[in-house]
Amino acid sequence: MRLIVIASGSSANAAVVENNGAAVLVDCGVTLRTLKCGLANAGLSLSDLRAVFITHRHSDHIKGLPVLARAADIPIYSAVDIGLCTHFEDRMTQGGFEVQAFECSHDVPCVGYKISCGEKSVCIATDSGTVTQSMLQALYGCETVMIESNHDIDMLKNGFYPARLKARIMSSRGHLSNSDCAKLVSYLAGGGLRNAVLAHLSENNNTPLLARAETQGALSRLAPDSGVNVRHADAGLIIEF
Ligand SMILES: [Zn+2]
Ligand SMILES: [Zn+2]
User: Fold this and answer.
1) Which residues, chain by chain, have CB under 5 Å from ion ligand 2?
2) Contact status, residue 149 vs residue 178, Cβ threshold 8 Å
3) Which tens digits make up the pLDDT trace of 176-186?
4) Which of 80, 99, 122, 200 could form a disulfide with 148 if both were Cys (CB 3.0 to 4.6 A apart)?
5) How far does residue 220's CA lie from ligand 1's centre (Å)?
6) CATH classification at residue 181
């Protein structure tokens, strides 16, 4: 099974989960060209996509969807009602994958997805101001997780964003900070976590180095022998598990 990052950050998000040539796309905040390039980089094409799952209606997650829907006949689902997709409740089976939605805490209705094939599963959890109970339940015991590590708190506090936007990002319906992510990953290390992919990094209030250092630092203090592989969700990153 593979997790393939097409794009991740404040401006565009899309990730692919693949198993034996069958793939599903989570979010489509990229152009069709970027999606095709990202798939080709992993030896895949649009025809390998069995379904698209959307987390929420913010443009960094859906802006490529109308063009994709015209270019390819792929079913589009979401566990939140956003009008553009077929709505489903909690879990479904599609293209050989079992997909379970879990609730995130954001300023619009938002979910993450746990995608499983047999014994293997990956969770994608971004755009949440706090770690919800259902998020924790889905993530714990997963071998590979893609978790939001949006901002460094000091960079955000001292940065140029207006006070209202800073407050929104830091609120319980905003985004997870590096420190939130570090605590969560350290906890998940006790459940057999192998790969932590730090996602949705802010271009203005974070750096990959800071994000990785915070989670690696917490792991070395709280779970020193866990051996968790920490990466940031750079476009083109492929994790095999
Ligand atoms: Zn987002
Ligand atoms: Zn969002």
Assistant:
1) 58, 127
2) yes
3) 999 999 999 99
4) 200
5) 29
6) 3.60.15.10
